[in-house]
Amino acid sequence: MIKQSIQAGGLKPGDRIDAEDVLSAKYGVSRITLRRAIELLIKDGLLIRRHGVGTFVTSPRLTYPLIGLHSTRDLFRAYGWTVDARIVEWSLARPTREERTFLQLSPSKKVVRFVRCDVVGGMAVGVGQVVLPGHLAHVVDRKSLTQASTYDLLEGKGQIRLAGGRQVVRAAGASDIVAKLLRVKPGFPVLVLQRTTFDSSGVPVEWAVVTYRHDWVQFSIDLSRQPFGVAFIGHHPANS
To answer: How far apart are alpha carbons 71 and 206 in whole angstroms?
Structure first.
């Protein structure tokens, strides 16, 4: 039925499937049976329901490699996808205790904060909540952020050499703020990257929490076998 049509290419990513009454008549099944089948296809990631709009065939997931330092724009460009980066908040303010800790700032310093919503093909797929030292406000001004990634701006306009970062990945439920931007219900399953980026001198230049829809992004990492003692240095539960 629907699954076979997707696999055969009759239904393509982004296509909206017909209404339940149309499909029920087409396949000769009850609407209850059809509804259960659609729920299973949504659970399997083949369909996605956009509340108030309809049910659509999902696009292929973007595979995010957990090796190397990449911007979201870098990854989407690699897939040939065009990203519409919408800056929904931007401010220059005093840092919170948490921001001071991650960016190694004194209380007297300021930070620039912004919230970015990444939209692909009309679908909001990711939200970046980003904080940088205040002296970089002119580098990551609101207009520039709609045209280039934070990393491109830091390396180009800011002439900062980025060296690497420290990143933690976790699964979570969408917060109220993120849910509103992604147009999903609070608690919707999301994948979260929390990352601190450093320049070539080891100074933190960005702290970001980037959230992706679980049905659009998946993570991958290449692994090599390591002795137990080597693999867990710095990762003992007591140090977490």
So the answer is: 12
